[in-house]
Amino acid sequence: MFSGTIEDLKSFMSGLLRGEVFDAWEVTEAKVETFFELSVNGRMKKDFFDEPDSVKREFAKWGEIKEIFFQAVKGKRLPGMLRIVLAAEKEWTDRILRECGKAQEEAGAVLYLNIRYSANGCQVISGVSHVEFTLDKSLEYAWDTELQKFLKENKIAVSTH
Question: How far apart are CA 11 and CA 14, in angstroms?
């Protein structure tokens, strides 16, 4: 598991809430506390759509809901708490699985990025949901490496604990 603290909070939050860096990631859940609490379950409600069978993904993309969170946090006061759990795109996950030789046995695994903001700062934490219990950590190591590369490529400075 990779865990780090965002070094430039203002830049990171701007990129998260106004930029496009995380737009393609799927939101499994998100929560913010300001003068009210906003909590989102990112699971798609397929019955909402005219053609429910045309909706192939399980969760909404961050780019589809980030404006709601931006509106909730904008203003003079910082939110008391912000927590977002993002899942990497399926194509990205499938590539990592293939590269570490886990494509067959771990098909269906989910690679997560947890973003946690509080008065103490903002942490990013990696996570993996395996299909079955395993003691093999090669997928976690591959995801940690890939996530750190992603953060660096997107100029998101993180100090590790």
Answer: 5
